[in-house]
Design a protein that fits this description.
The chain is of the alpha+beta class. The chain is built from 3 helices and 4 strands; from the N terminus they run βαββααβ. The longest helix is centred in the C-terminal third of the chain and has 14 residues.
């Protein structure tokens, strides 16, 4: 998935993950692709947007409910990726969960 996610009418939820990586690939790209594919198949998943430069990465996933977010957080493969993130891939990260109450979309 690339580009801007086309989400339904609000309300829905956004999980904003911002990170600074450690040096080296260490399998990160493959795991990131696998997590997007797996998340996309989860009940309640609405879309994803992601961008990364050499210093900062930001990924926003969209979900229909807090329950869907909780189930994804606890998914065994996602938990394994979270562990690798803390031990190998990230110098630091933040995670924010927000309720989207309004949105607009423009396309030329």
């Amino acid at each position: 998935m690339t580009g801007i996610a086309k989400t339904p009418e609000p309300p829905y939820y956004a999980v904003i993950f911002a990170s600074e990586r450690t040096e080296g690939e260490k399998g990160y790209g493959i795991m990131a692709d696998e997590m997007v594919e797996l998340a996309s198949a989860q009940k309640g998943f609405l879309g994803i947007e992601s961008a990364r430069d050499k210093d900062l990465g930001i990924t926003i996933s969209y979900w229909d409910s807090l329950e869907s977010i909780k189930i994804w957080k606890e998914h065994s493969a996602h938990r394994a990726a979270q562990h690798k993130g803390k031990t190998e891939w990230y110098q630091k990260f933040s995670l924010r969960v927000c309720k989207v109450e309004r949105h607009s979309f423009f396309e030329m």
